[in-house]
Design a protein that fits this description.
One of its GO terms (biological process) is DNA restriction-modification system. This is Cytosine-specific methyltransferase. This protein is an alpha/beta fold. Helices cover about 35% and strands about 10% of the residues. The strands form three sheets. Strands 1, 2, 3, 4, 5, 6 and 8 form a seven-stranded mixed sheet that branches.
Length: about 425
């Protein structure tokens, strides 16, 4: 077959086909986009075979009467290099200073921070399909899937400088008093540690919930530090609890940061960034125009929240809804539980109270509403040109699970200055 008609990126992704394209591999789109992103830096070799196979599959679907060879698919792949990355909202830096990988990537909070410092992402993984959709819409790259699988790990290239990971907090089955590498098997930290052990990056930057510090009476964090320091041989300064509100966003969000450096680099001191001398409040991120009535609470729901809070207060608990004033600081945005109800706001600009969703009762006239997904994005430090391609339910979850970009950037800058 002579390739008379090149195949588009959209067709290879299956977006133009009338029926759903079932890939022969879960890694096709990820390998393709990673190849296109790394075609000029020598790392494309890790992704080429998977990329060509995916293009070959797409061509066979588009031209079912033709016999598609590997060479034809490879030629089509080269055509794509000319069209790729023209419309990516957050492209890689033109002259990268360092390479990093993005594990448990979510929607790319780490990537935004690292790219803004001159970093080039050479591998990313995330298993949530909706988060992958958002990630791809902003970075033009589909993350690989489950990082616990060996077939995913085999795509990770050599020679990157920094490993970034916001891994979940999990308990370990600690056999010894201190706990070691083997004790973390079956947890997602084990997979992070295993990748560090194999690839030996210059540095790593890990993020987790504040509760990690006291999880399992402190044994979980002690085991993590022991593995990183003793088993893997990295210099790891004491972790630090960092609050997003100290780095330019009006959100009271505390997270533990753990950084480490390969010992042969000779780094023996590290100072986490100091809080910025900047006053912030919710009005800095509040929507400038009237928002949809769908974000306003119904009288019935507001009554339920008040009763719920009163019950808890009667038991001596402080749990319940909260309304953030314009000059206040938002509570941490989190998915699930009272995540949205703990961050209600006053907004009296609404004039049309006609419901557009199936609510019980009328829309309240007190101007009480939920924050919008864009406001949550701003609370996490995501710029306004960050694309939100998913429904509200998914976007709240994604921003709630993400990192506060400014706090990550401030710390990452310190890390990069040590290794460059």
């Amino acid at each position: 077959m002579k390739l008379k008609e090149k195949i588009s990126i959209e067709e290879v992704f299956g977006q133009k086909f009338k029926v759903r394209v079932v890939e022969p591999s879960d890694y096709g789109k990820a390998a393709l986009t990673h190849y296109l992103h790394n075609s000029k830096n020598g790392i494309s070799q890790f992704y080429k075979k998977g990329a060509v196979e995916h293009v070959k599959y797409a061509l066979e679907y588009k031209f079912p009467e033709e016999e598609i060879s590997y060479e034809v698919a490879e030629e089509a792949l080269q055509y794509m290099l000319f069209d790729f990355k023209n419309k990516v909202p957050f492209p890689e830096p033109k002259e990268p200073k360092f390479k990093f990988i993005d594990l448990f990537a979510g929607i790319g909070g780490f990537r935004l921070a690292m790219q803004s410092l001159g970093g080039k992402c050479v591998f990313t993984s995330e298993w949530d399909e909706q988060a992958k959709k958002t990630y791809a819409a902003n970075f033009g790259e589909v993350p690989f899937g489950d990082i616990t699988k060996e077939e995913t790990k085999r795509f990770i290239p050599d020679g990157f400088d920094v490993l970034c990971a916001g891994f979940p907090c999990q308990a370990f089955s600690i056999a010894g008093k201190r706990g070691g590498f083997e004790d973390t098997r079956g947890t997602l930290f084990f997979d992070v540690a295993e990748i560090i052990k194999r690839k030996k990056p210059k540095a790593f930057f890990l993020e987790n919930v504040k509760g990690l510090r006291n999880h399992d009476k402190g044994r979980t964090l002690a085991t993590i530090l022991n593995v990183l320091r003793e088993d893997l041989g990295y210099y790891v300064p004491d972790p630090k609890i960092m609050n997003a509100k100290n780095f330019g966003v009006p959100q009271n969000r505390e997270r533990i940061f753990i950084v480490g450096f390969r010992k042969d680099l000779g780094i023996s001191e590290f100072e986490y960034p100091e809080p910025l001398d900047k006053v912030v409040s919710f009005e800095d991120v509040k929507e400038e125009t009237v928002v949809s009535v769908k974000y306003y609470l119904s009288n019935q729901y507001l009554k339920t929240l008040k009763e719920h809070k009163a019950r808890h207060e009667g038991k001596g608990n402080g749990f319940g809804y909260e309304i953030i004033p314009d000059d206040g600081i938002a509570n941490a945005v989190v998915c699930g539980g009272m995540g949205r109800e703990r961050n209600l706001v006053y907004d009296d600009r609404l004039e049309d109270f006609t419901p557009i969703t199936h609510i019980k009762g009328e829309v309240n006239r007190l101007g009480i509403r939920k924050m919008t997904p864009r406001e949550w994005a701003r609370l996490q430090g995501f710029p306004d040109n960050y694309v939100i391609p998913v429904a509200d339910a998914s976007s709240y979850k994604q921003f709630g699970n993400s990192v506060a970009v400014p706090a990550i950037k401030a710390t990452a800058e310190k890390v990069i200055n040590e290794i460059l």
